[in-house]
Amino acid sequence: MIRVQNLTKRYNGTVAVDDISFEVERGEVVGFLGPNGAGKTTTMKIITCYMPPTSGDVTIDDRSVLSDSLPIRRSLGYLPEDSPLYTFMPVLEYLEFVAEMRGLEPDLKGRRIRDMIEVCGLGEVLGKDVSELSRGYRQRVGLAQALIHDPDLIILDEPTSGLDPNQIVEIRSLIREFGKEKTLILSTHILPEVTATCDRVIIINRGRIVADGPPDELGGRLEGRQKVRIGFSPEGFDRAAAEAALPAVAGVTGVTATGREHGLECLTLETAQNADPRLEIFRLAAEKNWPLAELHLEGSTLEDVFRQLTIGEDAAPAQDRAPEGGKE
Amino acid sequence: MSANILSLDRTNIGALYRKELKAYFNSPIAYVVMSVFLLIVGWFFASDLFLVGQATLRTFFEVARLILVFFIPAITMRLLAEERQSGSLQLLVTYPITDIEIVVAKWLGAMTLIGITLVFTFIYWLTLILFGNPDEGAIFGGYLGLLLMGAAGSALGLYASSISQNQVIAFVISFTVLFALFMLGNLLMFLPSWIAPVLEYLSLGYHLENLSRGVLDTRDLIYFLSFTVLGLALAAERLAARSE
What we know:
Structural class of chain A: alpha/beta
Structural class of chain B: mainly alpha
Oligomer: heterodimer
Largest sheet of chain B: none
Number of strands of chain A: 14
CATH class of the largest domain in chain A: Alpha Beta
Mean pLDDT of chain B: 89
Number of strands of chain B: 0
CATH topology of the largest domain in chain A: Rossmann fold
Strand content of chain A: 25-35%
CATH superfamily of the largest domain in chain A: P-loop containing nucleotide triphosphate hydrolases
Largest interface: A-B, 29 and 26 residues
Helix content of chain B: over 70%
Order of helices and strands of chain A: EEEHEEHEHHHEHEHEEHEHEEHEH
Number of helices of chain B: 13
Mean pLDDT of chain A: 85
Order of helices and strands of chain B: HHHHHHHHHHHHH
Shape of chain B: globular
Strand order of the largest sheet of chain A: 6-7-8-3-9-10
Number of domains of chain B: 1
């Protein structure tokens, strides 16, 4: 549906997007992931016909954004970063304005506005000015604005940034709902967002695509694969015996003692790809009567991949993993 | 360009035009600017009528033109600069509307505000009819002049607003150009005779003066029309070349 070919955008000498190419099939939900300034927003602005590329092209259903932007804009819904809506209008008037700009016929217009009010949960704020809304509601109005004409393609730039955790959950569930039927591209620098909403992730760094694939597949790509963290109560625990016995467990490829944490003697085990030795470790501990208190599988998260891909270009491949349940 | 002008979509323009009117009238801008205009102009009209005792709108038109030199930049400065500043331009230009349609809708919004303000000044005209027997031709020409000045000035203001995302800069640019064109007529006597006719033709004051005599000359109409079209075309061109 979307074909991005050798897209490059330069602003006054700096390269925002550097010769990227990818395709998006109809019905896919794609997440653009990358640090701030990686080129996500610029790519989206070109796809939405806001501005032309320096070189390269984007075609949507074989129409080029350069020569055929009007039909593309008709079938596209866009929510830019920070929802720049008109703030001086009440919500209902704003939705009417958008519906008119979208050229909806009067009877269809009323129906679509009612649908959007229901889907995006705007019933309570219809009479309020957009300027009075909380961020969460403002974002919902932004989504309603992007969807009112039932577009084939939806593009959302940082749809959950600046929202509190409850609002994030609400907006994500809306996005998942739309993603069932539509082609959807969203950008984010928040990793769990991608796992929560997308079929496919494109990681962009410094204007280039550094990875492209389903979120779980990308997670498995990382060197080091998975790790198992185990912790024993110090009383009655024989560290030397454990370190000797554990490497013999099937699937374990290495043992590192990581010292005392939360009053437990901790060890980190490296495992072969896709191996899960947790059950074997439990049996071993039971057999030897070791006081096992913690047993946890840490898959290589997307966060590890992201860090390695985006930081790894500057330094040697980063060895430091983010702590479990790490920062977003 | 001409092909685009012929294929303007009235639904698009209508929707954006109504939004522009809401932007004026849902905020204090329209009321403040209109009251200031009517107060100043009314003051001069009243003193002319009661102190000088003349049944004429001549002073009214002269003052109104000068006030328009401030009034027009004040109501047009926000038209595109504000959209750029707040980011709402990102949405507007990705709707299925052409750049020329955007410019025309916004220009019509400003023209409506000017038109409504001028309609309020009909009170002075009606007062005059009660007291005496004013020259209808001169009054018609005077109002036409104000409207055409509004049209040309708003097109210029729209272009100034398209240059920067800073509304103050937009105001200063359109005010400076409008003021210079307005005062140009007064400088003619200091200039060499070969250049005077050119500058005279460019001068706003000269054409307004012609109209206020109640004489409809196509040269004056062409001046205002080409001024307006040029301003709108430049604004649309500038809007299309967005780079950030």
